[in-house]
Design a protein that fits this description.
With about 325 residues, the protein is α/β, with parallel strands linked by helices. The chain contains ten helices and 15 strands.
């Protein structure tokens, strides 16, 4: 079994290849069992362990273990840590252990961009990012692979974190700034992408401009939420998988507030990728994409890394 570290894993996950790989994966056939979710209590610390398997006819089987500890921010640590093991689906032979953090962050950002490729306006050019973690840092590059992003703004509950990330982005060539007035930042954004571990709503519906696209990719449990129920009213709502309406706190709150019904969800990402349902219908409508993540995305990313590494090895 080969061990591919963070640098080796990252090297094969550029968004120009990863976003199309996810599109092909969602349009194709794969087996994705429900994730296993376990609550962890260690003294006063609380966390969640997810075990996410998937396999496909292409001959690969992957299992990701991901640990989520929201309290890590106070320790100066990332809130998510993951490992990923890729196997031969025909024999069960282990092929490689990949850096799960890189797999998770890149596939999440890529799914965000994939959703926006169907749901944001084609002329969308201003991106507002909420959060400063692993996924948030990748969002400008991800969205720039499908839209002509010219301005990037970032907000964080710790303003100094947003300022630091904006500085990093400027050094990388982006027109980037931190915003402290979240409402004003939302009002002027074409795409609002939330990549946080928030447990209380951050974005309100009245802040969202006509024609905007709200991307919710941070929260993935009933206790987590990034958007107020008002964000879903008078918007066309899409999800990444059929799991989302049962797992996402944002959606569950919107159902409870009668701002949305399960039947009102327009399509899953697979339905969009297969052309079974339409995405954005007009430049003026508001769209919302709610993602909780899928082991299918992990498998597609891991396969891309494995094949790239094998090609380099000759």
């Amino acid at each position: 079994m080969k061990i591919l570290d963070a640098d080796q894993t990252r090297a094969h996950l550029n968004f120009e290849r990863l976003v199309p790989a996810l599109r092909d994966a969602f349009a194709g056939d794969a087996t994705v069992p429900p994730r296993h979710v376990h609550a962890v209590e260690a003294g006063s610390d609380r966390g969640t362990v997810l075990i996410m398997p998937a396999w496909s006819d292409a001959g690969y089987l992957g299992i990701k273990t991901i640990n989520i500890f929201p309290g890590n921010g106070a320790r100066g640590l990332p809130g998510l840590h993951a490992t990923y093991v890729l196997y031969d689906a025909h024999t069960g032979v282990p092929l490689a252990q990949l850096d799960g953090n890189e797999i998770t962050a890149h596939r999440t950002a890529a799914a965000s961009a994939l959703g926006a490729s169907y749901l944001s306006r084609k002329d969308a050019s201003t991106l507002l990012v909420l959060g400063t973690g692993r996924v948030a840092r990748l969002l400008p590059a991800a969205h720039a692979s499908t839209r002509s992003i010219r301005k990037v703004r970032v907000w964080n509950y710790r303003p100094e974190g947003a300022r630091a990330l904006a500085t990093e982005w400027r050094h990388a060539g982006w027109d980037a700034d931190a915003v402290e007035d979240l409402a004003a930042g939302v009002r002027t954004a074409d795409i609002v992408s939330c990549a946080t571990l928030a447990t209380a709503p951050l974005v309100r519906g009245e802040w969202l401009a006509p024609g905007s696209h709200l991307d919710l990719i941070g929260s993935f449990t009933p206790a987590m939420k990034e958007a107020h129920p008002s964000c879903f009213a008078d918007a066309r709502v899409f999800v990444d998988t059929e799991e989302a309406p049962t797992k996402a706190g944002d959606l569950l709150d919107a159902f409870a507030a009668n701002a949305l019904t399960p039947e009102g969800i327009q399509a899953t990402l697979a339905q969009l990728c297969r052309g079974e349902r339409p995405g954005r219908l007009s430049p003026s409508e508001r769209t919302v994409f709610k993602a909780v993540g899928s082991a299918l995305e992990d498998l597609a990313a891991a396969t891309l890394v494995w094949q790239g590494a094998a090609s380099e090895a000759g």
